Amino acid sequence: MPKYAFLFLFVLAGLPVFAQSNALEVLHGRPLKIEEVTNYYHVPYFYEDLIKKTKTFGTDGMLQLVEETQHDHDDKATIRTAYVNDTLRKLILSLTTERWDKYGYTKKTSDFSYDEKGFRTQVTERNEKGDTVSYYHYLNNEKGDPIESRYTDHKGSLYSMRKITYNYDSNTMISAGYFGEKEAFTGEQQFRLLNFHMSSVHSDEVRNEVYNEKGDPIKYSIHSHHKWMYYFEAEYEYDEKGNWTSRKVYQLYTKRGKQKRMVSEHSVRKYTY
Q1: pTM recorded for the entire structure
Q2: Which among 8, 54, 104, 252 has the fewest CB atoms less than 10 Å away?
Q3: Is the pLDDT reported for residue 132 higher than 90?
Q4: Which residues pair with residue 97 across a beta bridge?
Q5: Does residue 20 carry a pLDDT above 90?
């Protein structure tokens, strides 16, 4: 297994994730706050091996995020995202992300545009000065799922693009990614019809997942455009509401002809209802 496997996975974690609403997972009991601590194992020395996250939801019980924060093992703030929501239609209107790292402080604001059906059509990204730096353009099918996404600079020059074909009977989609107009990769990916989110539209990976009855992924594989394949399994413990309080992720690998697994990460959550 190459040492850069975990580097690749951490890079993917920083890619944009945009959903039609901002509830990206199945939650029960309408929590007001989620506090999560994750220990990462076998990561390169320049990545954090412990991350603390806090998700705060609106008090109306609609599970719309109003703020996300992230701290390192020294409890220093590294990321803060504030949401402005349309509470009637359960849509994100804008989000502002602040980052603190060894290079200093950065701030980015993303403004979201929708059509009359509430399907996202565009995301406009602005820097801390308020200048537009890039756009995400979406072309959707009749279900509101994007069949094409285009990432451009502020002048409209194309950075990357993805085209997607859905098979709702088999709960899969075929996606092709492009850097500029040149096709870079293609692949099949499984998705959840009731909880489909847009992380796959902007990342250079194909991910196949198997979910348990609570809607949490218990097995998944990641196939990158570099032709690397990674296999994972997850084990959960739950509270009385049905939300997971402990999650262990194992990476599967083969050694001397035998399949083995090692702990990749361990997350613990505390909920406020």
Answers
A1: 0.76
A2: 104
A3: yes
A4: 81, 108
A5: no
Burial of 75 (0-12, 13-18, 19+ CB in 10 A): exposed
Q: Whole-angstrom distance between the N-terminal and C-terminal Cα of the chain?
A: 42
Answer yes or no: are the C-beta atoms of 148 and 164 closer than 8 Å.
Answer: yes
Cβ–Cβ < 8 Å for 26, 34: no
Q: Which residues of 109-142 are buried (b: 16+ CB within 10 A; e: fewer)?
A: bbbbebeeeebbeebbbbeeeeeeebbbbbebee
Residue listed under structure tokens 């209107």: 93
Number of other CB atoms surrounding residue 48 within 10 Å: 16
What CATH number does residue 175 fall under? Answer: 2.40.160
DSSP code string of 221-248: EEEETTS-EEEEEEEEEE-TTS-EEEEE
44 DSSP assignment: -
User: How many other C-beta atoms can be found within 10 angstroms of the C-beta atom of residue 87?
Assistant: 11
Range of the domain at 199: 5-272
CB 52 within 8 A of CB 71: yes
- Adjacent-strand bridge partners of 211: 217
Q: How many CA atoms lie within 13 A of 142 on its CB side?
A: 1
Question: What tens digit of pLDDT does each residue of 216-263 get?
Answer: 889 888 766 556 778 999 999 999 999 999 999 999 988 888 989 999
DSSP H or E stretch at residue 13: helix 5-13
Q: Structurally, how many domains does the chain consist of? A: 1
